[in-house]
Amino acid sequence: MNGLDWFLIVVALFCLLRGFFRGAVSQVFGIAGALSGFFIAAHFHQPLADHLKQPFPQFSAAPVVSFLVLFFLGWFCVGVVGHWIAKALRKTGLGFLDRLMGGAIGLVKAFVLALILLMVLTLFLTPRNPLLTRSFLAPYVSQITRIIVRTTPEGVQRLFEEKRKQVEDFWRERKSEPRKRPERVRREEKNI
Asked: 21 near 105, Cβ under 8 Å?
């Protein structure tokens, strides 16, 4: 397990607790906001990146920055609407049921965020980046990201598939390599 795995676990716990305290309605709108933010960012990050590069031609992180800005902006706008509706529902006395379902939905939200994060990392990092190649959870999450990528423009799909295949080839190579046993185990085997 590496930093990406621990980050995903912390995000899952955070979303579970946050979902419980915020409730189901807020969580549903949060998921809708994350998906909306992703689709907006996937379709419009390149024009924004081009616009950012005009005054700053050496700004190489413009595609990543524009993707993240559009993602969070879309997520925020839909989330505000959900917050207003959730406030109105709590006044009806259905607070605990809303919170209980919110915890479950929080876990779903964490999974969606993990999918989007892994897709963005696959798109923008090199295929042999240790953040991806040494992750325990990334190979499992990667299988589902392929479904989400099908909703993006063709150029993004092509780039993602190319990089995803390179990362998966590395994972297969890693699995086929014999694991090194700890020195202590090798010494004990010699003594037997």
From this structure: no
Q: Which of 141, 116, 146, 97 is nearest to 45 (CA)?
A: 116
pLDDT tens sequence across 50-97: 888 888 778 778 888 899 999 999 999 998 988 888 888 888 877 788
Could you please report the per-residue DSSP string of 113-161? HHHHHHHHHHHHS-TT-HHHHT-SSHHHHHHHHHHHHTTS-HHHHHHHH
- Kindly tell me the burial class for residue 69, based on how many C-beta atoms sit within 10 Å of its own C-beta (0-12, 13-18, 19 or more): middle
> In the 8-state DSSP scheme, what is residue 192?
-
What count of other Cβ atoms lies within 10 Å of the Cβ of residue 50?
12
Q: Residue 178 gets which letter from DSSP?
A: P
